[in-house]
Write a structure and sequence with these properties.
Length: about 350
Amino acid sequence: MQVYYRNKAFLFLMILSCVFVQAQDITDFDVIPKPYLGKPYYDNKTNAGISEVIYVTKSNKWQHLINDTIFIAKYDPQGRRVEYLRFENNKRNEPYLSSYPKNQYRWEQDNKARKMKDVCVSTYNSKGEYKKIYSYTLKSNDTLNRQTRTYLYDKKGRLIKTVNLFDDRMGLNSEYDYTDDNLSVLRQYSTSNRHNYTQYEYQFSEDGLLREMQEFQLRDTLKDFVDKQTFEYDNHKRLSVEKYKIGLPAFDVQTYYSYNENDNLQNMKIYWGKDTIAVDYKYNERCMMIEKKIYTTTWKSTKEIFFLTPMDSLTPMPYTFTEIYTYDDKDNLIGLKKMDKDGVFIDRVFILKYY
C-alpha cells in the first residue's frame, strides 16, 4: 500500500493534537523501541489501572452532534487488563458543551442510550506475555466483526510473529526479525496475498539507540521505497531531531525537541515545507503535565490542520488550542479537555476513573 505524504503528515499531526486514551492497544508496533522523550507526562504513583474512561466529543456547529464514548476495563489479580468494553451514545440537536463539568454525569442520566460497540478480551501465557487477544466490534446493523490475534515468541521471549484472523478468516499478519536483540525487520502481509507486503527496516547505533526506520512496499521481486525516518539525540540520549522523508515526491517534515531542567519535554517545533507548528508543555511542581498548547502562525489556508471528527470526516481545527490536564490527590490523571484561545471548550473531554 503506497503511503502518500498527506496521510503520514496528517497522522503525525493528529498524534500531536490529542491524547487518545485506549483501553487496549493491540497494534503491531508494541515491540518497536520508541526514542526517549524525557520523563513521562505524569507518573502514576499508585500504579492504579484505568477502569473507566468517558470520552465526550463535539462536532461542528452545523451538525450539533454530541458523541459520548465510555471504556470500562477489567483486570486480573496481577493488575493486567483482561477485558474492556466500549459503549457509544450519539445525541443530536443538543446545544454545544459550553462548559464542563456540568455534563460529566451524562452517562448516569443516559444509561439506556448506551450501545455497546467493542469487547476485547486478553489472555496471557505463564510468563505474563500476551497469548491471544479477542476483539468484537458491533456494526451499525447489529452484526459483529470478530478479530483474533495470536502472539508467538522465540526462546528468548522476543515476539516473532502475530497472526490475525478477521471473522475466523484471513487477516494481516506480522513477522519480526532481530539483530543483536534489536528489532531489525518487521514484515506485514495479508494471508490472501503473501507476496505483496509492507516491510519496515530499523537501524540502531552501538549504544542501542534507534537511528533510522524505513518503509518499503514489496511486490514479488520489486522493492519500492515509501518513507524514511531518522533520529538524532542529545548528550542525555533524548530525542532532539526527527526527520521524515515521506513518499514520492519527497516531502520533508522535521521536528525539533527541547527539554527543561527536570528532564520533561518542554517544546516541539515541526517544520513542514515553509510552515511551522509549535507545541509548548507546562508542568506542575511535581513535574506532571498540566497544559499542552499547539499553535502556528505560518499555516496557509491550503494546508489547514485537519483532525478526525466523530463523523470520521476531516474538519479544520483552530490554529491555536490548548489541552488542560487535571489529577487527583494521588497524581492519577483524571481529566483532559481541549480549549480554544479564548478558553472555550472545543471538541473533546476525557474523564478517567481508577479501580
